[in-house]
Amino acid sequence: MQLGHEHMEKNMKAKDLMSAPCVTVSAENSVKHAAQIMLDQDISGLPVLSDDERLVGIITEGDLLRRCELGSFAEMDENQPPRTRAQAYLHNKGWKVGHVMSRDVVAVTEDTSANRIAELMARHRIKRVPVLRRDKLVGIVSRRDLLKQICLAPKDATAPGDEAIARSIRTRLQQELGLGEKVKVDVHAGAVHLRGCVGSEAERQAAAALAEGVQGVEGVLLDIAVSPT
User: What one-character-per-residue DSSP string does 92-107 give?
Assistant: First the structure.
C-alpha cells in the first residue's frame, strides 16, 4: 500500500493523521461493553489499556467473529494440549476483553511516516495502529485516516506556464519512470500531449498518471504506442 503523493511521503506523520483522543477499553471490561462502544462510535477496533494506562492489547471486530454468542464455537479437540484448549475456551466463551483481545499489537510513534504506517498495515493485515509517546497511548491511525489524506493531497507543485509544466513532466518521466528518452512532451494551454513508444501498457498508463498529477495540467492526450520489442 503506497500513498504515492510526494507531499504525503515526505511530510505526513502519525501525529498529523491520528485521531485523538481515541476511545479505549480496559482488559477488565466486558466483551459486550466493547462491542456496544464499537457500535455506538461506529469504529471497528479499540485499544485496551491497563490500570496504569499502558497499552496491553487491541480488540477488533475480527476478534469477536468466532464468539459462541454467534453460534460459531467449535467443539474442543481432546487431543490438543490443555493450555491450547484453555486459550480457545477463553477466546470463545470468556466474558472479559482481556480474554478476547489481541496482545501482539503493532504500534508506532508520533513521528512514524504515513508510508511506513501503510506498509505496516499491509504487511500485518491490520486496519489500525495505536500511536505511542513514551509508551503512553496518544492516538490511533486507521485505514480511513490514510484514505482521507489521499483525497486531500494536492497535486505535485510546479511553476505556472506551459513550458514549466512540460519541463516538470519531462524531468519526472526520466527520474521516476526512466522514460525521458522514449516519451516526448508538448503542452499548450495546460493540455499535455504525450508522444512516443514504450515497452508495456503499464509504462504507457504510468506516463499518463504522472502527467495528470502535475499542478496546472488541464488534460492529457495520450499518443504513446506499446511495443514489447
Answer: HH--BHHHHSB-S---
Protein fold of 6-152: CBS-domain (3.10.580)
Q: Residues with Cβ < 8 Å from 208, sequence gap 6 or more?
A: 194, 220, 222, 224
CA distance 186 to 166: 6
H helix or E strand, kind and range, residue 17? helix 14-17
Check if the beta carbon of residue 58 is closer than 8 Å to that of residue 22. no
- Per-residue pLDDT of 88-101, as tens digits, reads 777 777 789 988 89
Any idea which architecture 162-226 has in CATH?
Answer: 2-Layer Sandwich (3.30)
137: nearest Cα among 95, 107, 103: 107
33-69 pLDDT tens trace = 999 999 999 998 999 999 888 999 999 988 887 665 5
pLDDT of residue 154: 61
